[in-house]
Design a protein that fits this description.
Oligomer: single chain
Number of strands: 3
Strand order of the largest sheet: 1-2-3
Number of helices: 4
Amino acid sequence: MSSQHTMAHLAAGTMLITMGGAQSEYHVVGIEGTKRAVAITGKCGDQHDALSAADASRLAASWNACQGLTQDHFDGGWTALGLSKHAKRQEDKRATARALLEGTLPLIVQVAGGGAMAERIREFLKEGAA
């Protein structure tokens, strides 16, 4: 089957969940902009708290890196050339997003006087974040 999956963008975060009648906060990977959790990586505040948060971030990044892949890729259809082409497409998308941010920053500063969003963009660009 070579159908392409439409995958929602995932983000790591925390969510209040009731299990066994008790409510606790858990580290989750969820679909951005919804209350839908895809994976729970651990309970907030327990001895594995930092690891659970890191696991959620890695799961979200891995999921998001697979955008645009078909089921064949996961069923053993990977080739070195195919993987290289996918990586190049992701790099091109990142470069385009970066250029859009760089072009938008002066407008944000001019119209809104900068603020928190402008500062976040400056930090992102300064760090060379991907």
